[in-house]
Amino acid sequence: MIGPGSTPGASVRSPKTAELVAGTLRRMVVDGTLKDGDFLPNEAELMAHFGVSRPTLREAVRVLESERLVEVRRGSRTGARVRVPGPEIVARPAALLLELSGATVADVMVARSGTEPMAARLLAESGNTEAFDELEKMLTEHIPAGYESGRLAETTGDFHLRVVQLSGNTTLSIIAGMLHEITVRHTEVALRGERSLSKTDYDKLIRSYRRLLKLVRAGDGAAAEAHWRTHLDTARQLMLEGLETIRVRDIMG
Predict the structure, then answer these.
(1) pLDDT band at 230, cuts 50/70/90?
(2) Where along the chain do its domains lie?
(3) Interacting residues of 205 by C-beta distance below 8 A, sequence separation 6+
(4) Which member of 4, 23, 31, 192 has the lowest number of beta carbons within 10 Å of its beta carbon?
(5) Which ranges of 33-104 would DSSP assign to H, the alpha helix?
(6) What pLDDT was estimated at residue 66?
(7) Using N-to-C axis directions, what is the helix angle for 221-240 and 170-191, rounded to 10°?
(8) Do the beta carbons of residue 241 and residue 191 sit within 8 Å?
(9) Cα distance between residue 82 and residue 114, in whole Å
(10) Which residue has the higher pLDDT, 173 or 241?
């Protein structure tokens, strides 16, 4: 039956056999039948299982390879290996899309301020001691090391990313992963020409991080969300001063 809005004479393309095979293998990765690091069965087994030719099977594997779900080493006898991707699979294309669209770093910083505070609330409400201790270790070891080595943008970026990842919300984690490299690169630009923040400003930064950690350990989601929003708003104003119109491509290129 033709539904409303259908175009007379329009045809619906049937999926190619290779796409159907790729879809089945993709589902096996998603449901855990095939795990990260597993090798796909050899070509003969897969051809027999799906009842397809070698060219069709290889086309299906190329589809999965283009999606970064499998890794194929040319000339290897071991075949295609499953590689479950992380947020980086969308971070690069997203950064490119932002570059092409002419987005400013201010756009990115606003988006960050819209996601991290909610993650802080979730972390406070559902986090565990192990998660809190990991953040504590970052505050006592990772970030100070970054301050001493001139890598503060990178190490503070790691802290922000882990706050979101430890919140347990997969969607927020993917968004944070997408924004991570862009925000770190921008922070490096903002600090360019200086070894790091002044000791006074660095101490203020650490106090704010410790305040967040205290609130999430106490399970106070509302206060953690409010504090982190204020922190991000303040940081955005400071880091964008004089750089309000800088475009994403200007820091990623």
Answers:
(1) very high
(2) 14-80, 85-238
(3) 156, 197
(4) 4
(5) 43-50, 54-66, 88-101
(6) 87
(7) 30
(8) no
(9) 34
(10) 173
